Amino acid sequence: MRRGASIVVIVAAALLGGCGLSANSEPQAIAPANLPPDLLNPNPGSSTTLPESAGTTSVDVYFLATEGDGVRLSPVKREVNDLADPGQRLGALFAQPTEEETVEGLTTSIPADTTLISLERNESDDIEAVIELSNDLVSIEGEALARAFAQIVWTVTEPDGGIRQVRFVVNGVEIRAPDDRGNPLDGAVSRVDYASLSPVR
Q1: Which one has a higher pLDDT value, 103 or 48?
Q2: List of residues 6+ apart from 60 with CB closer than 8 A
Q3: In this predicted model, which residue has the larger pLDDT, 48 or 125?
């Protein structure tokens, strides 16, 4: 019996050896030269471009551009993580135009130090938002201030965000936002109040 068992063990070892099985218990890397041809990509890509960041979405923020004899709003694409968060849109707007965009003629009336303190939807009117900003925004006046408000209102009221009207707070006090003619308005403002600055599509 022992001799027969020995023969069986020898035959089994020979078969395993013939199949090329390794005695290692851990997975082993296979050299590319030993891979079956149908698993190799005959046309490997040479691009080193990284894929776009997962989970981001393109939205429009509004800078300013000269159109004829005047200035109009100009939409520019920016990436945000949450399409439903208007605060992220404002963060992208407050980041100012890039160097390339500046060369192309885009500007902004929003002072560089302006920060968003809070943004909340009106509890009684979901299409209205109350935006509290640092007082850097009101360090400018006249046409520049009106254009800054236009940039903010148009950026926050993009159709896919659900907000249509905006109220502004500075230093804890609600302020009257100027329209496109510089006239202070009571209550919430909307894109209609900045019609003369609307983008040329």
Answers
A1: 103
A2: 75, 76, 77, 78, 155, 158
A3: 125
Single-letter residue type at 4 = G
| 168/108 Cα distance (integer angstroms) | 19
* Rounded Cα gap, residues 71 and 74, in angstroms: 9
Of 195, 199, 163, 198, the C-alpha closest to 179 is 195
Q: Residue 181 burial (CB < 10 Å; 0-12/13-18/19+)? A: exposed
Backbone angles phi, psi at 170, to 5 degrees: -135, 130
Q: Where are the domains of the chain?
A: 57-197
For residue 112, what pLDDT is reported?
A: 93
**Would you call 143 exposed, middle or buried from its count of C-beta atoms within 10 A (0-12, 13-18, 19+)?**
middle
Task: Work out the pLDDT band at 148, boundaries 50, 70, 90.
Answer: very high
DSSP character for 144?
H
- Kindly report the backbone phi and psi dihedral angles of residue 60, in degrees, each rounded to the nearest multiple of 5, phi listed first: -95, 130
Average pLDDT of the chain, as a whole number: 80
Reading the block at residue 181, the tokens are: 């003619």
pLDDT class of 42 with cuts at 50, 70, 90: very low
